[in-house]
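Render this sequence as a predicted structure.
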Amino acid sequence: MISACDPGVKSFTKCIDWDTGKPYQRCYISIEISNDVPFSVGLDDVYLQLLGGHQRRNAVTAACADLCLRT
């Protein structure tokens, strides 16, 4: 089981900007899990069209789910 709140998961918003009249946030996401099956990924420029820390956590959850489905 992997949680977006796992100590190996780090994320932060690099900037908030506008593109063609719509706001977006550019984020960094790093996941390093060393459970039974260790894996890691670093996503340097994740563009989210919805703003807020909760949206960044949603992106982390989606990235964790993607990693689990790939293994």
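Summary. Helices lie at 53-70. Residues 53-70 form the longest helix (18 residues).
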